[in-house]
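Batch queue: ligand-bound targets. Current item pairs a single chain with pyridoxal-5'-phosphate. No template structures supplied; prediction is de novo from sequence plus SMILES. Inputs echoed for audit trail.
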Amino acid sequence: MTIHIADRMSRLGTETAFEVLAQARVLEAQGHEVIHLEIGEPDFATPDNIIDAAIRAMRGGATHYTPASGILEVREATAAYVTRETGVPTAAQNIVITPGSKNILLFALLSLVNPGDEVIIPDPGYPIYRSLVDFVEATPVSWPVRQANGFRPDPEELRALITARTRMLIVNSPQNPTGGMLLREDTEAIALLAQEHDLIVLSDEIYRRLVYEGEHVSLFGIDGMAERTILMDGLSKAWAMCGWRLGFGTMPVEIARRMDTLMINSSSCAAAFAQWAAVEAFDSPESDQAVDRMVIDFRERRDALVAALNGIPGITCHSPHGAFYVFPDISATGWNDRELAHALLHEMGVAALPGTSFGPGGEGHLRLSYANSIDNLMTGADRIASFLGAAVAG
Ligand SMILES: Cc1ncc(COP(=O)(O)O)c(C=O)c1O
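Prediction returned. Tokens below.
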């Protein structure tokens, strides 16, 4: 029979990281050795105390369905964590717990955006923003993120993009793919614009704990913003829990109610024992210490990789202030980003992502993740250098 795929499927994009990872795995199965700089996943193990908490919860019977938005005590602990982090008084009824934070993004768009509305997204930016905005038949509007501005999107440029059709603004700081971070003054200027134009803001702060310079300023925490902001966060990055699939959103109750309905209609709930593990992640000093240790390691890796990349003729790499990515400018090498990423994988065994897989604004860049050992990062940089025909300085 002919299988007719629904039209909406053609509007979904992808996350190139997963595709490049699959290609790299094929090469590895053929006996090639690949340095993985494509995946946005901490290489650290989840801290032991968090694993123990999940095992205890499982043995204690947390193996059943939970309320759709999450177990009440876990939502309370999450609300207390959000209050500590942002200074905004938050209650369990503002919290929705989902299997991964991507669901918060999808549910926000499904609940609040109509076909034909405009949604402003960072470009380059996390590719799922554009994909899901297209999926709900809204129009993504690119807000440039430029290396010349230290990868801080400019509020003045944002002002020029707002129209009568703009419904939502997506902000991500620290940012994937550039590692850029908004300053307090940027955040305040963005908040003012959102208030002036009555926009809903989705503030993706999943990298909020992975900061190496400066302070993370939450848009959600700016005066008057909690009533119009969905704070998107999750356990994947800071606590090295990508595979646990645990995200959460903090939002006005009217929106949380819609997300609860969407959870009932989709996943039912996040895994019960994983939810209890989140309480351990938020509340135990041991978990905080584990995050602090990861941040120290990430900073050291960042510094080593940035120095090595800047030693390669034709590459200019800005030192990012947060997350665990660098986004070097490779345009002076004469290579196109897609061709270079392809050649590096197939000829040198270095898996990297082309900048344009994060939007047209990523042209002339590669995205490399430094969630890898210093040895692997240096081998990767060496291979890139020898491919481009020069030795890494130092
Ligand atoms: C900016 C950003 N937001 C959200 C996510 C999704 O994370 P998860 O669904 O694991 O919570 C990612 C993952 O790479 C990300 O980079």
